[in-house]
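[Meeting: bench + compute handoff]

Bench side (C.D.) handed over the final construct sequence. Compute side (W.E.) agreed to return the predicted structure before the next meeting so the bench team could plan truncations. Sequence as handed over:
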Amino acid sequence: MFTIKITDLARQLNAKLLGDNNIIIHGITSIYNTKKHYITFLANNKLRFLLSNCKASAIIIDKSNVSFCKITSLVVDNPYLAYVLFAKKLYNIIHNNIIDNAKEKDVTLGKNVNISNNVVIEKNVKLGNNVFIGSNCFIGKNVNIKDNTKLFNNVTIHYDTIIGSNCVIQSGTVIGSDGFGYIKDKKKWLKVPHLGKVIIKNYVEIGSCTTIDRGTLDDTIISDGVIIDNQCQIAHNVTIGKYTAIAGGVIIAGSSHIGNNCLIGGATVINGHIHICDKVTITGMSMVIRSIKKSGVYSSGIPVQQNNKWRKTTVLTMNINKINERIKIIEKNISK
């Protein structure tokens, strides 16, 4: 188990330590899921209300939030950057362990497991009864795949991923890769380490060449009965509710929550931190930039039309502000 003294962490982060200097830290959690012996961070003052129920042993904050904290604090100029630097240390430890153990075969196999040619399985993997692993698959450290699940050829499952029973994952899909998370540090981009995992529940089917990224601190979760088509992108910390269907080419940005029994049409793009309630249908090629709080059918894609008509429509759209001003003047004159 990873451990670090709070005093050593404060020194590494060039932070001012306020509170108990005898605390031992085992890792870092998000402000939403805090727990004892872990440190968290507050980088957004809108989440300050969560401090009243914070269960972490310590927190990384800036000086504007010192008066709101009742637990041991590491005070820095940029809490998010400090979190990234600490998480990077944890990330490197995890990956060094994976490399060291890459050739070990401490694997738990259920009954009637079928493993095809050229499969790589790392340490502490658990495969349930009747699991099928196609040729050229990679299964990382600590992965747990439950009964009757099938992975077809060339599937990659990264470390710590949990896949439920009766799932089907088609060729070329990658589950548990790092999400697209970066912070600008002066002129360069600094990668945000992803320490969460992917949890896929039961009876989930995933098409070919789809990617599902692991969470940053919390987990990416695909619930029971979800079906996902080919070439979809599910970003870090996304949650997809039960029995939702997602057609090909859909992109869901980070930390979005999709409800139960939703239907999402092909090539739809859903912005980050969006919340979509249960029983929502989104037609193909829609762009979702705001949360949807009421069930129903939603659309925003522009249907194809003859090129000459499309050109006229585009011109009208680009001049809509001028047209609107003219209408206001006409209405004003009529009212007089």
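W.E. noted at the follow-up: The helical segments are 6-12, 79-100, 307-318, 320-335. C.D. will use this when planning the next construct.
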